[in-house]
């Protein structure tokens, strides 16, 4: 019995989602060179860089490839695609297939897809862009809010969160008063996840860190 050998050509390619360019959201690859950011709640902008407490359907960037998003009366949206793309979210290039690493392009009749990639063994991803032999916890840039992904013992890893965020993926914001940030005996007054330090006379600043100079400070 003869063995079946898969001849796989591994291409050199730079993933635009690695590292994650989305500040507070998830990066999704839509072609070899393009991506879109799916923002967390109340976050919007091309890179999920803006905060909006009155979020609308289009604020989460559901449309791809610079398509025009229009909010509808039922709190939904519609995407107006450019001529080069189609689908509900304008995700797919018209007449173009970008499968990598020997992936095979297959036509489909999905409402949102014109094709999908059938990947060879050991590869996965929407474009067959991920080598299963190299995938680790950090491969998909899981850490949110500028958290740093660190491999402990491959493939396992953890997210090191920026100050003010916690959670396995740095997805939760720490309430301002939880860590008692007010200095110089200031009092923290909470308000949701935000808060305010009430400083004693002679101090000022976000956390009462500054000394206010008065006429008597120099002990004339």
From TrEMBL:
PANTHER family under this entry?
CRUMBS FAMILY MEMBER (PTHR24049), DROSOPHILA CRUMBS HOMOLOG (PTHR24049:SF22)
- The protein in question is named EGF-like domain-containing protein
Q: Care to name a GO molecular-function term for this sequence?
A: calcium ion binding
Q: Which GO terms describe its cellular component?
A: plasma membrane; protein-containing complex
InterPro entries recorded for this chain? EGF, EGF-like_Ca-bd_dom, EGF-like_CS, Notch_Cell-Fate_Det
Q: Which residues form the EGF-like domain?
A: 13-49, 54-91, 93-129, 134-171, 173-209
A single BP term in Gene Ontology: heterophilic cell-cell adhesion via plasma membrane cell adhesion molecules
Disulphide bonds annotated for this chain are 17-27, 39-48, 81-90, 119-128, 161-170, 199-208
Q: Which domain of life is it from?
A: Eukaryota
Q: Looking at the Swiss-Prot or TrEMBL record, what is one Pfam family this protein matches?
A: EGF
List the lineage, top down.
Eukaryota, Metazoa, Spiralia, Gnathifera, Rotifera
Keywords, ordered alphabetically: Disulfide bond, EGF-like domain, Glycoprotein, Repeat, Signal
